[in-house]
Amino acid sequence: MKKPEVYFRLLYKVIIPGIVVLFIPVAIIVFLFTTVFSEKSTPNESSYISSPSVKDYVALKATVIFNGTQFIISNNDNFNYNDIKMKVNGKFILKVQNLKAGDVYTVGLMQFADDDGNRFTLLQKPQEFFISCKTGGGQDGFYSAEWN
């Protein structure tokens, strides 16, 4: 019968190093696969509004406040917003003709609807809000906000 020290020596000198040698390359491959081939989970403006490129947009100085039942949108720029498209959670849309410079627009959350006509309701939580529009100078304007 072999002494327990022999088994411990075998375990520490042969088996554990063998496992480590196999584990490290597998861990590296898994890490590379998940970082290189996975999609980013953070939303970006190009997934919500089609445009030639984000750099062509004017960053709007808007503010959007959600008070539980309504969105309060302020145009803090010195130009009007025209042909406005507002989007909540990347799905629910409301189109508005214009919002003059310095004006505030208050809208109930149920005014926003998806492509199938489903309304945004009190049971849903707004997490993202996007505005795209034409500025007074004809450029494309863009604004986004996120809530937790």
What this model shows, in words?
The chain is α+β, with helices and mostly antiparallel strands. It folds into 2 domains: 1-38; 45-146, Immunoglobulin-like (Sandwich). It contains 1 helix and 8 strands; from the N terminus they run αββββββββ. The protein has one helix at residues 4-36, and strands at 57-59, 62-66, 70-75, 81-88, 92-99, 104-108, 128-135, 140-146. The strands form 2 sheets. Strands 1-8-7-4-5 form a 5-stranded mixed sheet, with no helix packed on it. Strand 4 and strand 5 form a beta hairpin. It is elongated, with a radius of gyration of 27 Å. The termini are far apart. Residues 39-52 have low confidence and may be disordered.
Mean of pLDDT = 80
Cα gyration radius (Å): 27 Å
User: For the report, how would you describe the main beta sheet?
Assistant: 5 strands, mixed
CATH-derived architecture of the largest domain:
Sandwich
Structural class: alpha+beta
What is the H/E order? HEEEEEEEE
Query: What is the CATH T-level topology of the largest domain?
Result: Immunoglobulin-like
% residues in beta strands: 25-35%
Helix content: 10-25%
